[in-house]
Design a protein that fits this description.
Elements (H helix, E strand, L loop, with lengths): L7 H45 E2 L8 E2 L1 H15 L11 H12 L11
Antiparallel strand pairs: 1-2
């Protein structure tokens, strides 16, 4: 390093300016890191709220979580599952099979029209 400017007051100003600039840079870096961490925490918080759901509070309706929604979907699907398999003739699958038998003369099974 150099011996300085030779003027003690000027050297003192340069040293203090460098110290202030270093502290300001460190604070800016800490602020940027904290801001990034805050954004990540907010995103994780939203994911957790979506997964667990949100209870009802004044003015805001409850929002069910993922597991509660999946349970509702499973109940609805199990309610129509009997329509997908042949049974006593009342299912949607039976109706499609009847229509297929009645209209099979319109088209051969080998893929070429009659």
């Amino acid at each position: 390093m150099s011996d300085g400017t030779g003027v003690w007051a000027m050297d003192k100003v340069v040293i203090w300016s460098a110290a202030v600039a270093s502290v300001a840079a460190a604070l800016t870096l800490l602020w940027a890191v904290a801001r990034g961490i805050r954004r990540i925490v907010a995103a994780v918080d939203q994911i957790v709220e979506d997964w667990q759901g949100i209870p009802e509070r004044p003015g805001v309706p409850a929002r069910p979580g993922v597991m509660e929604r999946l349970d509702g979907i499973e109940r609805r699907v199990s309610g129509i599952e009997h329509e997908l398999h042949p049974n006593s003739g009342a299912s949607l699958r039976d109706a499609i099979d009847r229509v297929d038998r009645r209209t099979s003369w319109l088209h051969q099974d080998d893929g070429e029209p009659e």
